[in-house]
Amino acid sequence: MAVGTVLVTGGTGYIGSFTTLALLDNGYDVVIVDNLYNSSKVAIDRIELISGKRPAFYEIDITNEAALDGVLDKHPEIDSVIHFAALKAVGESGLIPLEYYRVNVGGSIALLRSMQKHSISNIVFSSSATVYGDATRVPNMIPIPEHCPIGPTNTYGQTKVMIETVITEYLEAERRNNKKAGKPYEQFNGALLRYFNPCGAHPSGVMGEDPQGVPFNLLPLLGKVATGERAKLTVFGDDYASKDGTAIRDYIHVLDLASGHLAALNYLREHKPGVRAWNLGSGRGSTVFEMIKAFSKVVGRDLPYEVAERRQGDVLDLTANPARANEELKWKTQLTLEDACADLWRWVENNPTGYRQDPPAELLEALKAKKA
What we know:
Elements: E1 5-9, H1 14-25, E2 29-33, H2 42-51, E3 56-58, H3 65-74, E4 78-83, H4 90-95, H5 97-117, E5 122-126, H6 155-180, E6 189-195, E7 197-199, H7 218-226, E8 233-236, E9 248-249, E10 251-253, H8 254-271, E11 275-280, E12 286-287, H9 288-299, E13 305-308, E14 317-318, H10 323-328, H11 337-350, H12 361-371
Helix pairs in contact: 1-2, 1-8, 3-5, 5-6, 7-9, 7-11, 9-11
Family: In the N-terminal section; belongs to the NAD(P)-dependent epimerase/dehydratase family.
Cofactor: NAD(+)
GO cellular component, one term: cytosol
């Protein structure tokens, strides 16, 4: 008997697939909806390979409310949602803002409307630390706590703030209306998870990040430089007020991030807090140059890079203060930056074409031996 059944939107993507794996490993059943815009259906095979369980999957777009209704009609057992489905590149969001608002905000509204019709009242929203914008503008806000003033500096961050607002106002209204009508109201709960820079891969080497097209994040780009698919890395800006001039970010292993989503869902179900925001991060900031050095060490050679101008919307320091999640969710990062680099290299070295190839036989044998 499953603990519960969770709808995971964007569940074939990088963080969505690892969260699905964590849910299955902890007794939940999972139904995935994803349009495969920037992911691969093969992720589902890898989830099954590792966990021995297969989530249900529907290829639909998050903005298609009728299609969402159809999935929820078929699965009345779904009692909670973890919402990842979104466009997610900071740079791209400034080039095509209408599309970002249509998909991210419009898709979230379609999802909430469908949840409302099907009496699903728990949602964990995969938000972003970009909602804070440049936290250095406010004294004493590094590392960033949840009470740091919101102030995104790019379109992607703006869409996340809007979705957080819509979720908060919707759930608070449902609680208020039900309470007024003398009906149960505590079942309406939301987690707003603001996380920093996910990285790494599954330690087995058979599951990782497989962006379609050019990746936008530092570590996947470094992976492509290491395999020779890209000639060099572009570092955007070396004139920041940091120890080496490059931007500071809080890198978090994707396995830790997935366990944070699981912890937040369990907290909503157990404590019914209403709407609550949590930062998921390590609390340790690393510069871009430090990351290049750490990954180069794992690969065994220096990886080439060139410095370019800063990108619009980038900020100096995004480091989390994870104290609230540590205390309330009883969650904290377990894996190091070195773990993330080693796991990522194992993934990209063995799977240079990502999910468009079968994993090497020796990795599969090692995985089988571990499970036996």
